[in-house]
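Quick one: structure tokens for this chain, please?
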Amino acid sequence: MMQSTFPVLSLAIWLPIAFGIFVLAYGHDDHPALARSVSLIGAVLSFLVTLPLVLHFDNAAHGMQFVEKMPWIDRFNVNYFLGIDGISLWFIPLTAFITVIVVIAGWEVIEKKVSQYMGAFLILSGLLIGVFCALDGLLFYVFFESTLIPMFIIIGVWGGANRVYAAVKFFLYTLVGSLLTLVAILYLYFQSGQSFDILVWHKLPLPLSVQIMIFLAFLVAFAVKVPMWPVHTWLPDAHVEAPTGGSVVLASIMLKLGAYGFLRFSLPITPDASHYLAGFIITLSLIAVIYIGLVALVQTDMKKLVAYSSIAHMGFVTLGFFVFNDMALQGGIVQMISHGFVAGAMFLCIGVLYDRMHSRQIADYGGVVNTMPKFAALFVLFSLANCGLPGTSGFVGEFMVILGAVKFNFWIGMLAAVALILGAAYSLWLVKRVILGAVANRHVAQLRDLGKREFFMLGLLGIATIAMGVYPAPFTDAMQTSVTDLLQHVAISKIPL
């Protein structure tokens, strides 16, 4: 481990939380401009703080980097223990970047309780970064569960007509799913000689029967977060009712917490069980990729369509993790990062239309390209990235997962490739019905194109989507060593598939 001389990870976690608390404490609806300005400053500074992680990360180094460790609760040997490797590196600047976008997106749209809205997102940003940095099991659990609170408030206060139902469903699904994880964490604590050190847990010689129980306990929480079929039903409701910023963070970052949990807990702590139950996870992943793709095809609500497409894309991620080769595992991580850009951009685009027409129904649109050409160009770009067009970030991860899946089993790779066809079908069908053709009605005829603020935030995501699609090396190079180390650790297993 490489000990950090400067607490950059702590700064990345606590700076947005500090700004969020300040905005909550001193913000007032009589002066919303001040709350917006302070929130933007906090979000931008928080993003800039994460850049040294990327600039000074050693791609060839093994183990954790930027490590910070100090006692937290001495009596129970709980430590404030932070560190990152190539697997977790890119999720920290991604989270901070998306928070900047969300603050800009809500600049004019949110008119009431502005300070509470902005403060909730800043606090949420810090908590999410904490999940990706935590190397103490109890610290991870605290961050993991704490993210529910601001998102619950965001959906419940600023959401749509059924926001309370969606917020409660989201909260209950994720909270109940995590209770078994707490039991597994406590079991590992006692098995390791009363240590919450996740890296120590990676080395525990657990029998297969125990590993299976621990794997299933983690699976409940992580599967809900991803979300995997069949525990995915909370996501469409949450997306439909959440405000645009809530949908963006939910899709771009929060869905990644479950997938990240597989990499940090399930695979390294229970390698034998991971091999033993790989067929089960692969089956659930393929169902998500194919069946949920078909469900997306029949949606009439734009938000629901993109929500179901997110479930299908995250199916690629879990598939990549459990075929146990470096191409597929790297592809799964790349897909997580790409999905952060593309899904966030899709929800922002839907938010732009909703702000103008107050409708998410596909049937209410048609011919938008005639009145909003700038918007149409960006919407088509993100839709093509959503279906995996070469040259966009959406292609890189999916292609790597399919290559790795074919290497593992040809027919599994073939079934995964079907999802590319389904992705193209629902993405292009959405473009055809909303963007192309003649102007459908007088409401579409009166639409105004993107303003400077909207063009700026969508343009940033467009640049990120194309840059990652054209040159993914910075992402794959950073994770190569950590992925190889993880696979070597998991390969210790002798359990036949």
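Strands lie at 65-73, 78-84.
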